Amino acid sequence: MENNSVDSELRKILRESEPEIPTTIQKRIDQTLTKLPTAKKKNKFLKRFLITSSVTVASFALLIAISISSPSITNALKQVPVIEYVFQLLENKGLNKANEMGLISNIDQNATDENITVSIIEVFNDGINISVGYAIHFSDKLNSSNIFPDFKIKLDGKSPSSVSVDTSSGQWINDLTYINMFTINTDQPSSEQFQFDLIIEQIGETKGNWSFSFPLTKEKSETTTILPMLTITEGETTIIIEEVNFTLTSTKIRAQMLKPGVLYDTYDDFEVIDDQGESLRRHNSGVSFGNDENIVQWEAEYEAVQEVPAFLTVWFREGLEITIPIE
């Protein structure tokens, strides 16, 4: 490119750039441009070197000028953290184990709306639960503590009839970036792979549209299921522990309660304790009636254990608990 052409291009950029560059900086750039070397027939290497150096200085001055006078560009130049793992940062034991086994899918999809960028980082599907690790990047520091996204999902283009969602305690990795994960429990298509659509409609108080679509595969992972059929009776109430299921994402317990009485109203308070005396965090629980109103089916899902314990203890209320040996 000839020297005059370089002058012309840079001046054109300066004229069209918004916002307006401060006069003092503009003057300094003009002075730099006027000192560009004139054409010479000899020493072409020196000519190219001088022109390149002068243009670099002018371009650098232009960048500084725009950055100083434009807060939006200054913000854009800030380093956005590269997040490769969410499950590890949140120290989820089961999902960390899944990651060690190479079962985590890296998604790395982004969507931006209302000056908020949502990144879906990684996903794990064991055929029962779908765990999604995500990050939210805000353009300004958020004052509200309400961050959890309001969303809907589709599996192979269809909305499931029933969905339960559990979320963990997220964390801020800097003033503008928040990470967390949620686990979805729903009936999945029978195929080993299906299309998963995630549509986020609101984040905190901000409504918008952050949409994602990607294929999900049911990963074959370690699952331990026991059918203890243990019974405990107190008064008219009988509890039968029918099934305990351990996966990489949860610990599930299913039981029948005959004439549950007050237990029907307190099933959310049932506690599960492992062989180390650690209480497992409850994800969700529910009850349903059978053909007889005196028979209630109780199903609950708790956090995953890192290793299958020697036993579990289910505490229903003071004085009423049952220990389940795991063989």
Task: Produce the secondary structure layout.
Blueprint: H1 3-16, H2 23-34, H3 44-69, H4 71-77, H5 93-100, E1 105-113, E2 116-125, E3 129-138, E4 149-155, E5 163-167, E6 171-172, E7 177-186, E8 193-203, E9 206-217, E10 224-226, E11 230-234, E12 237-246, E13 250-258, E14 271-273, E15 282-289, E16 295-303, E17 311-317, E18 320-325
Helix pairs in contact: 1-3, 2-3, 3-4
Pfam families: DUF4179 (PF13786), DUF5643 (PF18705)
Organism: Chengkuizengella axinellae
Keywords: Membrane, Transmembrane, Transmembrane helix
Can you walk through the features of this model?
The chain is α+β, with helices and mostly antiparallel strands and 327 residues long. It folds into three domains: 3-76, no CATH class; 93-217, bacillus anthracis domain (Immunoglobulin-like), CATH 2.60.40.1630; 224-325, Conserved domain protein (Immunoglobulin-like), CATH 2.60.40.1640. It is 20% helix and 42% strand. Strand 6 (171-172) and strand 7 form a beta hairpin. Helix 1 (3-16) runs parallel beside helix 3 (44-69) and helix 3 (44-69) packs across helix 4 (71-77). The model is unreliable at 39-70 and 72-79 (pLDDT under 50). The chain crosses the membrane at residues 49-68. Residues 223-314 form the DUF5643 domain. Residues 51-136 form the DUF4179 domain.
